[in-house]
Amino acid sequence: MLNKSEKLIILGKSGSGKDFLMRKLVEEGLKGCLKMTTRPQRANEIQNMTYSFVDHSIFENNLKNNNFICYQEFKVTPLNKLPEVWYYGITKEEFNNSQVFIMTPGELNQIDSETRKKCFVVYLDIDRQVRENRIIRRNDSNDSVMRRLNSDELDFQNFRDYDLKLTDPEFLASDIINLMD
């Protein structure tokens, strides 16, 4: 594990490269966070490697017991299905034991100011057409591509709480590590 004092938080719209960057940072020696979610597992995802996929009762129990440092709910209508709610969250224990995180602006806003000072926040602000093409290529049928892209525009509309903003879709993980304390 790399000896970095800061925690690195990655934010970006769907298809911006958050998971790619997380994988590269973990390959470089940082410890990645395992986020808990109630959303359906995608074909290329692995339980307890990509996410901790849980049912609603487990997530809600953690919520009731105040085990999350941050969490978010998404109301979605998967293709050809009824509307449902998906939850994502990072437990306090996972946050304390990890170095790299993927968050949304809503989740980042739940982090207290003292903890935020110890984090390096990277915002992947990649062109919409590039992101749309990436999402279509990965053939994700869990959710509507257009709904996700449009929802992201709202979520990131006034987002300014970052330490580094990347707009180049060909970014390098090593460059980011070198900027961390």
Describe it.
- With 181 residues, the chain is of the alpha/beta class.
- The chain is built from 8 helices and 8 strands; from the N terminus they run βαββαββαβααβααβα.
- The strands form 2 sheets. The protein has a 4-stranded parallel beta sheet, covered by helices on one side. Strands 3-2-5-4 form a 4-stranded mixed beta sheet.
- The model has no long low-confidence stretch (mean pLDDT 90).
Task: Summarize the entry for a quick read.
The protein is of the alpha/beta class and 181 residues long. The chain has eight helices and eight strands; from the N terminus they run E-H-E-E-H-E-E-H-E-H-H-E-H-H-E-H.
Offer a few descriptive terms.
alpha/beta, 181 residues, four-stranded mixed β-sheet, four-stranded parallel β-sheet
List the helices and strands and how they pair.
Elements: E1 7-12, H1 18-27, E2 36-37, E3 52-53, H2 56-64, E4 68-76, E5 84-91, H3 92-97, E6 100-102, H4 105-108, H5 113-116, E7 119-124, H6 128-137, H7 145-155, E8 164-166, H8 173-179
Parallel strand pairs: 1-6, 1-7, 2-3, 7-8
Antiparallel strand pairs: 2-5, 4-5
Percentage of helical residues? 25-40%
Side-by-side strand order of the widest sheet: 6-1-7-8
Largest sheet: number of strands, sense, barrel closure: 4 strands, parallel
Order of helices and strands: EHEEHEEHEHHEHHEH
Q: How many H/I helical runs?
A: 8
Q: Give the overall shape, derived from the CA principal axes.
A: globular
- Radius of gyration (Å): 16 Å
Strand tally, please? Answer: 8
| Average pLDDT number | 90
Instruction: Tell me the fraction of residues in β-strands, as a range.
Output: 15-25%
State the end-to-end distance: 14 Å
Assign the structural class, choosing from mainly alpha, mainly beta, alpha/beta, alpha+beta, or little secondary structure.
Answer: alpha/beta
User: Unreliable runs, pLDDT <50, ≥5 residues?
Assistant: none
